TrEMBL record:
InterPro entries: Gal_mutarotase_sf_dom (IPR011013), GH (IPR017853), Glyco_hydro_31_AS (IPR030458), Glyco_hydro_31_C (IPR048395), Glyco_hydro_31_N_dom (IPR025887), Glyco_hydro_31_TIM (IPR000322). Residues 241-584 form the Glycoside hydrolase family 31 TIM barrel domain. Belongs to the glycosyl hydrolase 31 family. GO terms for molecular function: carbohydrate binding; hydrolase activity, hydrolyzing O-glycosyl compounds. PROSITE patterns: GLYCOSYL_HYDROL_F31_1. GO terms for biological process: carbohydrate metabolic process. Gene3D superfamilies: 2.60.40.4040, Glycosidases (3.20.20.80), glycosyl hydrolase (family 31) (2.60.40.1760). Signal peptide: none annotated. Residues 593-680 form the Glycosyl hydrolase family 31 C-terminal domain. Pfam families: Gal_mutarotas_2, Glyco_hydro_31_2nd, Glyco_hydro_31_3rd. Coiled coil: none annotated. This is Alpha-glucosidase. The lineage of its organism: Bacteria, Pseudomonadati, Myxococcota, Myxococcia, Myxococcales. CDD domains: GH31_glucosidase_II_MalA, GH31_N.
Length: 796
């Protein structure tokens, strides 16, 4: 694009040529928006002025001031913490941080539009330079290792059953990545809901190429300097996840195949009789009457309210599945209402589109439109009044097994137009009509609209409780409304290993509340795989056992001993961790940083940390390296720089190892390798059969002594929006003397009179000041303190 005209406004720069436009703005500090329209003159009516655009993902609406200078060769744009140089002759640009370091460079922007029936064909491409050695992390729910360089991805939400370690596309489309070169990070987000693809230096090792099937490339660039800084800025742009209710962090049980209320009662009793923690049970599609959403099968579930109350008496919440497709049944009030209000997706030629999912025939509410989202949200009312605690959105890509033929009309050449009714994957045709938009444009945001409608309705219908929505499909910004699980996986060891990088990839896009089906949705796990998957799943933000109809049951007791005992230990470990997990979820609600983090979040300059995609950090201070291969009792793990305490049982007297090297960790079947970083302080509680509240009645601080110590604990009622308390632990080890100070903010009254502080890494203890009592044994100091303690001092 040769730049012919420059329009400078206080918070907007528009560069235009004969055919193309580049518009630059800054919505937030450290974030630049570059709106490329490579064929503006062919697709718009007011070229070079660009039409207004609605973003599904972006919530920040700031317009920060720009400083613009121009010389004969370049236009220079500066904003807070960054700058952009645009070449006048080519329209290419260079993105730099405040220190002048080049973070990203475009090599070209290209577009084409081809007139066709029933809609024109667009292709818009942006080519970025792939610097030698640069790593590309994230891309949301994608397969492969953490570094996606050398891979190619398609963003088109797809119902895949089962998926495999090389399957693409999957259910989520989040076109965002973090670039990492040496120890400096930057970010890129393509805010286009259209079908898109990215070639991550695969076809050409020197280029990253994005292609959208729409007429624009609406891009956001983020400065670092670290990966965590990039993620925080992305979350500030697209929204942080809300703090979920505590119960949703407990153990969850599901199965496609609990066919009656008695089955649900039986699984709850199975957990309780064996002393297994459980907080939630799901109802799959079998609870519906003839697969009609928002109905109950009266024979199999004759008293839903009674079932919900019985489960609640056992400390268990009930969460039903909700699919978007409506059964086309004449006289069914819900279908008739959606049709009469014109809320349904239509064929190109105008009739209501008819397909097949579980209901047959089926029609689809147009959940991309705000008025339909509000209507859909209102349909949750009857279920909420029954006491239903949350909702599970499935089949929302949207999935459609078949579309009834709609041949369209002939073109001016009396031939059937190419592309009429074209369907990619089990979904709706490209040319299906969603109001004034085509399915090709809004396919990837259909699930986002469904989740938004549910979340906002639950906030209104039950304002005293936090919504819980679980979704399979989504787009950038889905974290504002729903937790995400990775869909229909299989009971294979490779999928256990793959799950770690997938969840970390979602976390890098601020999708913090995530999990996978344990121990695989399809197939048959053996007892060893169940245990290993539960050990890893102890640290998933969402821990759910789920299986498919036609597969053997996979509840933890189905495998006998010793697996039942080991499964119970994993669940009890999960419940001990809840104070730390709840605190991390609160942190995510403030910053967008997920509990499950790649090692590089804390060690961006560590090349070995980037390659460690089968281990992760749980928060800042716990390093988890689960065993993910059959028959293994040891595994290789990378410890970043610093001292690390072996802590496989979340307590004990493990060895302290200096990091910056690989270690061989012991991992017999009853052990998941875990380390506590020097200076880390994490909070644990006692195991329980179910959650109650997050104002912990029993609390233990576990501290790995170091020159600098830090810890955090967030507490509240565990649900709702009332009083809270944030506790910060600080201190350090100086000249052999350990000093710890604790401070609180917030109005929540304490529910405990005493706390325990366990300190690891001390060689000797002579005197403890500020304690009620203490004991020093095997290198571990255990101190009992009053719940309102503020200072603790330990002398050697």
């Amino acid at each position: 694009m040769h730049i012919d005209d420059v329009l400078i406004e206080p918070s907007r720069l528009r560069l235009s040529g004969r055919h193309a436009v580049l518009e630059v703005s800054s919505p937030l500090p450290g974030v630049l928006r570059l709106r490329h329209a490579p064929v503006s003159s062919e697709v718009g009516f007011l070229h070079p002025e660009l039409p207004g655009k609605r973003s599904w993902a972006v919530t920040a609406d700031g317009a920060r001031p720009l400083e613009v200078k121009r010389d004969a060769e370049r236009v220079h744009v500066s904003a807070e913490g960054m700058s952009l140089e645009v070449d006048v002759e080519t329209g290419t640009w260079r993105f730099r941080d405040a220190g002048g370091r080049e973070l990203a460079r475009s090599l070209g922007v290209h577009g084409e539009v081809k007139a066709a029936y029933p809609m024109s064909r667009h292709r818009s491409r942006l080519v970025l330079r792939a610097h030698p050695g640069e790593r590309y992390l994230g891309f949301g729910e994608k397969v492969g290792p953490l570094d996606k360089r050398g891979m190619h991805f398609t963003f088109w939400n797809t119902d895949v059953m089962p998926h495999h370690p090389d399957t693409d596309p999957l259910y989520q489309s989040i076109p965002f990545f973090v670039g990492l070169r040496e120890d400096v990070a930057w970010g890129f987000f393509l805010d286009e809901s259209w079908r898109s693809e990215v070639d991550v230096a695969r076809a050409d090792g020197t280029q990253v190429t994005w292609e959208s099937w729409g007429p624009e490339l609406d891009c956001y660039l983020f400065v670092g300097p670290g990966p965590a800084d990039v993620v925080r800025r992305y979350a500030a742009l697209t929204g942080c996840p809300p703090l979920p209710p505590l119960w949703s962090l407990g153990a969850q049980q599901s199965r496609w195949g609990y066919e009656s209320a008695d089955d649900v009662r039986g699984v709850i009793q199975g957990y309780r009789q064996r002393g297994l923690p459980l907080d939630c049970v799901y109802l799959d599609i079998d609870y519906m009457d003839a697969y009609k959403v928002w109905t109950w099968d009266g024979a199999r579930y004759p008293d839903p309210a009674g079932l919900v109350k019985e489960a609640a008496a056992q400390g268990v919440r009930v969460v039903p599945i909700v699919d978007p497709a409506l059964k086309l049944e004449e006289g069914w009030a819900l279908y008739e209402e959606a049709r009469s209000r014109d809320y349904l997706v239509r064929y190109d030629r105008g009739g209501v589109l008819v397909g097949e999912v579980w209901p047959k025939p089926a029609v689809f509410p147009d959940l991309t439109r705000p008025e339909v989202q509000r209507w859909w949200g209102g349909l949750h009312r009857d279920f909420v009044e029954l006491g239903i605690a949350g909702f599970w959105n499935d089949m929302n890509e949207p999935s459609c097994f078949a579309v009834q033929p709609d041949m369209g009309i002939l073109t001016v050449t009396s031939q059937r137009a190419e592309g009429v009714g074209k369907v990619e994957g089990p979904t709706l045709p490209y040319d299906a009509r969603h109001g004034d938009r085509r399915h090709l444009e809004v396919h990837n945001v259909y699930a986002l609209g469904m989740a938004k409608g549910a979340f906002e309705a639950l906030r209104e219908l039950r304002p005293e409780a936090r919504p819980f929505v679980l979704t399979r499909a989504g787009y950038a910004g889905i974290q504002r409304y729903a937790a995400v699980w990775t869909g229909d996986n299989s009971s294979h060891w490779a999928q256990l290993e793959t799950s770690l990088a997938m969840l970390m990839g979602l976390g890098l896009a601020a999708v913090a509340f995530t999990g996978v089906d344990i121990p695989g949705f399809i197939g048959r796990a053996n007892g060893e795989l169940l245990v290993r998957w539960m050990q890893a799943g102890t640290f998933y933000p969402l821990m759910r056992n789920h299986a498919g109809k036609g597969t053997p049951p996979q509840e933890p007791w189905r495998y006998g001993e010793p697996y039942l005992t080991l499964a119970r230990e994993a669940l009890e470990r999960r419940y001990r961790l809840l104070p730390t997990l709840y605190t991390l979820m609160h942190e995510a609600s403030q910053t967008g940083i997920a509990p499950m983090r790649p090692l590089l979040m804390e060690a961006p300059g560590d090349a070995d940390a980037v390659g460690a995609f089968d281990q992760f950090l749980f928060g800042q201070d716990l390093l988890v390296a689960p065993v993910v291969r059959p028959g293994q009792t040891k595994r290789l793990a990378w410890l970043p720089a610093g001292a690390w305490l072996e802590w496989p049982g979340l307590e004990g007297t493990g060895q302290v190892t200096e990091g910056g090297r690989y270690v061989i960790a012991d991992g017999p079947l009853d052990t998941v390798p875990v380390w506590l970083r020097a200076g880390g302080a994490v909070a644990l509680t006692q195991p329980a059969l179910h959650t109650t509240d997050a104002n912990w009645k029993h609390l233990e601080w576990h501290v790995h002594a170091a020159p600098e110590i830090r810890g955090r604990l967030y507490e509240d009622a565990g649900d709702g929006y009332g009083a809270s308390r944030l506790t910060v632990l600080r201190g350090g080890l100086t000249d052999g003397v350990l000093r710890l100070e604790r401070s609180d903010t917030g109005a929540l009254a304490r529910a405990r009179s005493e706390e325990t502080v366990r300190v690891y890494g001390l060689r000797s203890v002579k005197q403890v000041t500020g304690a009620r009592e203490h004991r020093f044994e095997d290198g571990v100091l255990e101190v009992k303190v009053a719940a309102d303690w503020t200072r603790l001092e330990v002398e050697p």
